[in-house]
């Protein structure tokens, strides 16, 4: 006797295989753990004093970023000014992330982007969130919460 497989069974099996191969990894992957892109600028602050102020300001604005993004429903932009430098930053979480996942994703983004310092610009995209900082204002200030300090 020979084994025969119907074309309908083959088509169904192929569809299940393709679905499993391409969609399950997307569903099962953790959006907080996948870094898609990290880009660091090449320009650093003009002198050592400005560079130190810039790094301190960047750490301050990014240290507050994940809490502000969560508090502001997934999106926040702000700045910190000190010495002769200002650092502008925005953070955004995908609407598919809950509060805890958003915070975890942005905390990981902050950790990654910190490797860009003392470059005056950096951005990181993860599968669930985005973060950018710069010494140039790149967003419309009237649309965002702005924090500044001395």
Automatic annotation (TrEMBL):
Subcellular location: Cell junction, Plasmodesma; Cell membrane
Membrane topology: Single-pass type I membrane protein
Secretion signal span: 1-29
Protein family membership: Belongs to the cysteine-rich repeat secretory protein family. Plasmodesmata-located proteins (PDLD) subfamily.
Top-rank taxon, per record: Eukaryota
Domain Gnk2-homologous, chain residue ranges per copy: 36-138
Protein name: Gnk2-homologous domain-containing protein
Keyword terms: Cell junction, Disulfide bond, Host-virus interaction, Repeat, Signal
Gene Ontology annotations for the cellular component aspect, listed alphabetically: plasma membrane; plasmodesma
Recorded coiled-coil stretches: none
């Amino acid at each position: 006797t020979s084994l025969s497989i119907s074309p309908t069974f083959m088509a169904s099996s192929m569809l299940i295989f393709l679905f499993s191969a391409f969609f399950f990894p997307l569903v099962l992957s953790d959006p907080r753990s996948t870094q898609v892109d990290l880009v660091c600028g090449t320009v650093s602050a003009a002198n050592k004093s400005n560079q130190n102020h810039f790094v301190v300001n960047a750490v301050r604005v990014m240290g507050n970023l994940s809490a502000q993004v969560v508090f502001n429903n997934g999106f926040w932009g702000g700045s910190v000014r000190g010495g002769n430098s200002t650092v502008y930053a925005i953070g955004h979480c995908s609407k598919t992330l809950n509060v805890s996942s958003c915070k975890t994703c942005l905390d990981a983004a902050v950790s990654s982007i910190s490797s860009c310092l003392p470059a005056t610009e950096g951005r990181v995209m993860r599968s669930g969130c985005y973060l950018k900082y710069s010494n140039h204002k790149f967003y419309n200030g009237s649309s965002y919460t702005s924090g500044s300090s001395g």
